[in-house]
Structures are given as structure tokens and as C-alpha cells.
Amino acid sequence: MNDQLAEISRFLYSPVTVALYFAAAFTYLVALTTTVGRRESSVRGRRAQQVGAVLAMAGVGGHVAHEIVRGLAQSRFPLGNMFEVTSLMALVGVAGGVGYLQFVRRRGELNGFVLLAGGLLMAFAGLMYAEPGPLMPILDTWWRHFHVSLLVGAMGVFAAGFVFNTLYLLRERADRRLEAHHRVPVASGGGVDLGASEARAVGGLEDHEDDLPDAPGSVATADRSTFGLQRRGTSVLWLTVGTFVGTGLVSWVFIVSASDVTWGVARFLGINLAMVAAALVARWFVPFLPSADTLDGLAHRTIVFAFVIWTVGTIAGAMWAEQSWGRFWGWDPKETGAFLTWIAYAGYLHARATRGVRGRRAAWIGVGAFFTLMATYLIANYVIVGFHSYAGI
Amino acid sequence: MAGDPTARDEPTGEDAIESQPPPRMNPAVRRRSTATLDDGVLRFVLASVAMGWRWLVRMRTALILLGVLGLMTAIATAVPQAPNVPGTVESWLAGDEGPGAGVSEFLWTIGAFDVYGSPAFLALLLALFLSLTACLIPRIRAWVRLVRHSQPPLLRFETGAPLASFEVDAERDDVLDAGESLLREGHWRVRTSRPDDAVTPQVVGEKGLWSREGGSLVFHLSFYVLLAAIVFGQLVSFEGQRGVIEGEPGFADTEVSYWTYRPGRWFDGADHAGWRMDLEQFHVDWIRDPLAPGAGQPTTFASDVVVTPADGGDPVRATVEGNRPLVVDGMKIHQLDWGYAPLVEIVVDGQVVHSAFLTTVADEDGAFRGAAKAPAADPDVGLELELFPFAPDGDDGWPRLTGAPWDEAPLLVYHQWRGDLQLERTQQLITELDTDALDAAGVGFLRPGQEAQLAGVTVRFVELRRWVGFQVSTRPQIPWLLVGSALLVLGLVPALYAYRRRLWIVAHPGGGTGRTLVRIHGRSFQRADAFDEECGTFARALEERLARPRSRSGAGAVSSTEA
Ligand code: HEM
């Protein structure tokens, strides 16, 4: 019975969820290419977006079903090992990111990027796949579940923030490139000094989506001849090397921790090349992206939300440690990592509020903060095993 | 930083929104200039202090300091920390592990093995808190000024498009009254134009005036509470560890009975509660079926203990579990560690030179390691012990080691040494021998109840029990840490989510028709999206409250109202 459930949960994870996420991402991205240059998106584009929405919902449904079945198979909440944590992080990131874009910001056309990140994260979780099993009693406490759920949720939202930050950087470079070419400002200004749409005091009673300066159709990208120019804002070589090296700063963990070097190098290359591919896809989509301001604002709002959750989650972790081990903070690698991530994101928030740093440099700090998050998460789990080590890595 | 007019009282001067510079997130901070003294040295000192202060106040400095804090924490993540894993640090220094002895030597000199105890960290902490203080004092003053005196500015020129406009069958004053009461109900800070203000009659409301900045201040101030609580904790807390063997006499909470003893500076013997604790039984179990999911994982850890109060009251039975510490007289008792405790007797020349339960500690291979030290013999006898809890006899009659931790077929393997144990002279763990001055004298293995003789020494494995390592701690700082954490979270949420915004309700007479044209202007300093919704709701509420409107024209093109 449990074996069958385990089998079903694995099937729901892969291929079902992974494939649906990638398919939905692909469809949404195709839809995005049709929305540029027109005030109204084309019928074809709208239809593609609807298909994407259905696929995304199916993907989230499959993912939720996977979590439930896995929970049933092992009679416990699926947050006990690296695979489960990463998978739930992807679920929170996708459901939260898509829900936020769709219903709060009403920018559903960007869902493709969130889904792409979700698909990659789910595929990445496969590297850590563990069969369903019970949890060590020491890990089975309410505070731990609270703590881990919050941190995992925050990680998912931070991942969405990372996507927006990188898209912002790509778009911002493209704008500068275009500007240098035309010697005229391209996108809506205003963000230079105040950073993002925060400062813009616009508002209306009606739905003025079309009149907002950052509505996709109104940016000076309608002309297809400028597409190449915008894409060239970031050179392929720079992006490839940068992404490879940047990802490598984190993914070396998989070489170090592998029992056999070939397998380690294969995982390392797999992750790095997947990230490079994702970066190149994003680069190709630069002309279809909303304005840099919008992306910057999206990144800021997501990270602000995740920061609050992370803060509460870390405090909950200290409570758990006090309850389980009689010390609330011991600077063990995970605690240090959580603290470091918190400091890094505080750095991002401060940078956003510091004149002369906000904008591009703040976004880079945000990207660095996400690398800190991933690096501490992987190093603490795979390289140094502290008190917190999860069962069944 | 230049002065920011949005922060101060703005009676009536240039306060149309179009004439203001863009608002900033923070109220302006007034600074005094210092260097007015003539005296050379004093002047130099003062000027330097002022410069240092200005540097500390800058946001960029805070950013750099946070960066350094991040860097130090990164080092603490990558390099083993002596307070946590002293063993690893030693092998790094010896060059057995890590980047090599040379690099480790360098790391040692810069204090990388104890980042949080290093002078550099202390200096950084000092700089952080100085910077924080330098930043907060003017911010708090500016904030108090803002909360006490600030009045929203009147709108002089309606240049931008309104957020909403509609006509109503109502007198101008009724419109303004309705607007004012609606704003007041929503807890806005309200100002109504007077006839001599020389503006179109209007009501202004401002909100989020103090909550965002106030939240940020509470958030940053909570760091002082946390720091104070941590320092207080260093002084008055206590932590001690002690192993107890099942069924054997336990220990009393006194200074001398702990194996490791870490009192705060102000914690002394008189602060001990003096209760006594004995371990009746320790329960531990695992998933023993090798085919079940999670095979080998532990399922139970629980200690049945008896606690006798210091005043000689009735003993109390209780159970300590992994996540359920026992609290006695405000001291928390945690169950941290456990191992097997074989009772080993050593007999030399017919004399029992050693008879005690030995604590053994699990290693990675599933063996439990310990040591027996018998200085009563001459020369000394030492045993290195390896206990394999589940080593059933194989088909060939020899024990088969499985690595499983349950004691279904315990096997004690011992290495016998003779010579000088060097007790009292070298630092030794109770589970290890210092074999420098010892000579190997053979290897034997025993089942419970068996004895063996090697080179004239008889070793008896009498019985097998378990021991549990308990930690006892008092941490009076915890309530204060909770207060600090609560302030931190309660400040953080408004600091990031509250937003400062203004709303102007301007009433134009409808040219003798008895109707009034109402225009609503607004401006938000943060979170334009949330403000949009709020404005919409507000305008609808106002329109409903006034007499039935005859016509309504929604806002046309809405664009940025920034200067
Ligand atoms: C050196 C000490 C520090 C100074 C001088 C400082 C200063 C400031 C200032 C002036 C702001 C207001 C920014 C604005 O809204 O315009 C701010 C915001 C903030 N600070 Fe700090 N800070 C310090 C340390 C920290 C630390 C250690 C943290 C936590 C990790 C932190 C977290 C934050 C957060 C979350 C905000 C809100 C950012 C926003 O409004 O977007 N600060 N800080």
C-alpha cells in the first residue's frame, strides 16, 4: 500500500509536475512574444496564455497532489529532507509567484519566467531525491515544522525575487544600450532617482493598465528592428560565462559532496548548463519584458515579503533549538547560513534605500543575496553537517 | 543630505504638489556644523569627531558595515569554529584536514577560528552600533518633530490630472465637511483650508506619517534590546553537562558535579538549585527491519528520571525526551547524548583494580568507543574499548559486525595496554587513552558475562547498561530576547509595508447651479499600487456619502504627478 503510494508520488513529481511546469513556461513565453508591438495582445497570444494558465494550474495541481500522496505514503508532513524542502520551496515559489503576478499585479504575461524557475528547481530537486520515509523523533516538533515551513516558503519567494532581479538587470542593460544608440531615453524615467515604481504617485479609479508607462505595448520596443539591439545589451559570451561562473560558485558543492567524481561533475555541468540555457532564453525575451522599473518593483516587493517571513522563520528556528537542544543560537553552519542570508537581504533593502546604490547596484546585491542563500543552504547540508542535518539526504 | 521640505511644517508657501521636489522615504535630518573653535588641536579633534560622526551617519556606511558583517559570517561558515568543533580546528592547525598547516596558521593569526570571539568582530559590533546610534538619534528627533508638528500641505495649483472627479448636488461646505469626516473616520491627519489661505477650498489628509518611519525605528532599536539581552545572558546564564548511567546514582545540581561547566561571569555556586537527579531507565529504539523505509532510523529517545528537590521533598518521576526538556526550579534539563555503558572489571594478581560502568560514545561506523583506566594496578592497566551492540555469531562461529545500534548481541572488543597512563599529567578524555607511555599487551573480545585473561590481566564484561548525557541550563535572558524579537518583527512589518500618502479633496463651485465639482488628488511616497486601490475606495465612499450624484466622469489619463 505504502509502496504504491510512494510510486504514485514519484510519478506525480516526475514526469507529471516537472513536465507541466516546463510546458506551461514554454506556452507562456510564446504568448509573451505575441504581445509586443500591439496595444491588444493577439488572439493567438491570448489563447496561448490561456493554454499556459491551464497547464500551470495542472502543474500546481500535480505538485500539490504529489505532496499529499508523499505525505500519506510516509504518514508525516513532507518537509523532512532536502528533496522535500526543495520541492515545497518550488511549490511555494510557483503558486505564490504566479498568484501574485496574476491577481495582484495583473501581469500574467510574466508567469512564464516564474514557471521556468519552478521547473528548473523541481528538476534540481531530483538530484536529491529520497524515497518517502519516517522522520527522526528529534526533528518531529511543532516549532521545527513551523520554522522549516516558513524558511522554505521564504526561499521560494526569494527565488521569485531573484528571477525578477535578473530580468531587471537584463532589461536595464538593454535600455542603456538602446539609449546609447538613439541618444534618447527609452523607458519611463523616474526610477533613476527613486528606484522603482514606489515613488510614482499615480493612481486612477478605472483600470488604466494601457496607460501605465510600463504596459508592454507602450514601451518603445514596438519596432522589431530594435529587438536585436536590445538583446545585444548583454552579450551572449558575457552572459554565458557569467552565468556559468556564477552558478559554479554554488554548484561546486555537488562535486565535493559526490561519492564519485564523474557523477559529481555531471551534476555540476547539468546544473550550470541548465542555468546558462535559462539565462539565454531570458536574454532572448528581453524585448518582450515590461519596463525595468516594473521588474525592479516586482523584485523589491517579493523580497520584502520573503524578508519578513525569513525573519520570523529564523526566530522560530531559535525557539526550536532552545526547545530541542537547550541552546537558542550556537552558530552552527545552518544558523550561520540563515543569519548570513538575512544580512545579505538586509543589505539589498538598505541598498534600495541608499541614493547612488539603488537601481542596478542594488539589484546586483539582490542577486548576490540569492547566491548566498543557495550557497549556505547547499554547503550547510552537503559539505558541513551540523546539528540540523536532515534525515535521509 | 539636503533638507527635505516634506518633513517640516509647511504653512502655506510653495506647497502645490508640482512645486515640491520628489518626496523621500525619510524625514530630513538637521545637522549642526561643529568646527567653529579657534584652538588648533581642539578644533582638529572636534572636526575629526564631526567627520567621523558624519561618516557613521551615512547610509552607505551602514551598508559597508553590513557587508563586513556578512563577510565575517561567511568566514565563520567556511572555517570551523573553535567553540563549536574544537577537534576539527585542531586537525586544521595540525594540517591533517583543511587547506594545510600554513594557511591554518594564518587563519589562526587573523582569528578566523573564532570569528565571533575575535577582537575584529568586537570592533565591528562597536562600529555597527555606533553607526546605528549615529543614524537613529537624528532620525528619532526628526520623527518626533514630524509626528508632533507636521501638517499636510495645501494644494495650490491643480496641475496634474485628478485621481477622481465627480459633480454632486451639494454645497461646497457640505462636500468639505463630508470629506473631512470621512478622512477623520479613516484616521487621517486632516487639515482644512481657511478663507485666507488663497487656495481653492479643500481638505487635505495625510496618513502613514509616522508608522513607516516609526516601524523602522522600532526595528532598529530592537537591536539594542537584543544586544543587551545577549550580554546579560553572557553574565548570568549557566550551562553544564553530565552523563548518568541507568540505575546508578545520578548527580546533584552543584558546582562540582558537572563534567563540563560553563557559568556566566555573575553566576556562582549559590545560584545552583541543588536538586538531585537519577536515571531509572533510558528507552531507545529504531526501525529494525532493514527493508522498511527509513531503516535504521531511531524512533524513540526517552529517559525516565527521578528528581529529588533540594529541600528534601518527595522525589518526582518524570520523562525527558529529545524535544521535551524537563524544567526543575527554572533550570532546563535536556537529553543531549547517549551511549552504551558496559560494566568492566579488571583483576590483576587476584585484586580488582577497576570495576565501573564506562561511558562509550558512538562513532561513524556504529561502534561505541570508550576507555578503562586502572592506575591502581602496577604498572597501570589501560583498555581501549569498542562495543559492537549487534554482532551475532556467524555460521563459522565468529562474531559478525553489523553496525546496527541495537544491543541484541553485544560484543566488547578491547585493546590492552600497560605502562603509564599519565593521568593528571596530560589532558585526557574519559573515553580515550593517552598511549604515549603505554605498551600494547594484546587484544581480546567478550560477550556479556564472559571474562578473558591476557598477560596476567583478567578482564570481565559483567553487564551492559546505557548512559544518557544531560544538559542543565538556566537562561534568564530568554524573555528579553523574546521581547527584542517581538519588537523586531512588529517594527519590521510597518517599516516595509506602511506607506505615507496624502489625499486632497478640492471643491469647485459649479457656477451658480448649486452643484459642486469635487476633485480628488493624491500622492503616495511608497507603494503606488496599494494607494491606487485605496483612492478608488475613498472616492466611491465620498461620492456615496454626498447627495445622489447626477453625473460622474472618471479620471481620464492618469499620469505621474511628479515634478
Ligand atoms: C549600521 C547600522 C544600521 C544603520 C545605520 C541602518 C540605517 C537604516 C536606515 C537609515 C534605514 C531607512 C532607509 C529608508 O527607508 O530610507 C534603514 C532601513 C532598514 N534597515 Fe537598517 N540600518 C542599520 C542596520 C541594520 C541591520 C543590521 C538590519 C537587519 C539586518 C537592518 C535592516 C533594515 C531594514 C529591513 C530596513 C527597511 C528598508 C526599507 O525601508 O526598504 N538595518 N536602515
Question: Could you walk me through the main structural features you see in this protein, from its secondary elements to its overall organization?
Answer:
The complex is a heterodimer of chains A (393) and B (563). Chain A is mainly α and 393 residues long. Chain A is built from twelve helices and no strands. In chain A, helix 2 (43-74) runs antiparallel to helix 3, helix 4 (111-125) runs antiparallel to helix 9 (261-284) and helix 5 (142-182) packs antiparallel against helix 10 (292-325). The two termini of chain A are 24 Å apart. Residues 186-222 and 386-393 of chain A have low confidence and may be disordered. With 563 residues, chain B is an alpha+beta fold. Chain B is built from nine helices and 22 strands. Chain B has helices spanning 40-57, 59-78, 86-93, 101-109, 119-149, 172-185, 211-236, 478-497, 528-545, and strands at 164-168, 189-192, 202-207, 238-245, 251-252, 260-263, 276-286, 298-308, 316-321, 326-328, 331-348, 351-357, 361-362, 368-374, 380-388, 411-419, 438-446, 451-454, 457-474, 501-509, 516-524, 551-553. In chain B, strands 4, 6, 10, 11, 12, 18 and 19 form a seven-stranded antiparallel sheet that branches. In chain B, strands 2-3-20-21-1-22 form a six-stranded antiparallel sheet, with helices on one face. In chain B, strands 13-14-15-16-17 form a five-stranded antiparallel sheet, with no helix packed on it. In chain B, strand 11 (331-348) and strand 12 form a beta hairpin. In chain B, helix 1 (40-57) packs across helix 5 (119-149) and helix 7 packs antiparallel against helix 8 (478-497). Chain B is elongated and about 125 Å long. The two termini of chain B are 19 Å apart. The relative contact order of chain B is 0.14. Chains A and B meet through helix 10, helix 11 and helix 12 of A and helix 2, strand 8, strand 11, helix 8 and strand 21 of B. Bound molecules: protoporphyrin IX containing FE. Protoporphyrin IX containing FE (HEM) sits between chains B (25-26, 59, 62, 65-66, 128, 131-132, 135, 216, 220, 495-496) and A (342-343, 346, 349-350, 352-353).
